[in-house]
Amino acid sequence: MPLLAEDYNLAVLLDLRMEEYATAWAHLTNDTIMQNQADRRCWAARLKEEAQTAEADHRLAAEGEAEHCQLALEEHKKNKSKYTPVRDADVPSNPVIFPLDSKKHPAQPSLQTLTPSS
Known about the structure:
mainly alpha, 2 helices
């Protein structure tokens, strides 16, 4: 590191509010104030533009969602059987045995009735 010519800790700070620095102080503050105002205007314009862009994006998303819902509703109307709800039930692991209703089905013919009578 190069050696310093003077110790900056012992340097005297300039008082820019003295009369001999008044014009420099005025130019510096005016320039700073003008730059700050210009930056604020630019920032406000940027925020306004971003708000308009966000609003347009939100409106387009809402329109797209409405169109998507309309298309889905038409699809449901066309293919009702495809979109019928399915009951959420477990698959039985045991075989299901239904009792035979004797009123609906006639009794099984016995072997005697099947043999030809002579």
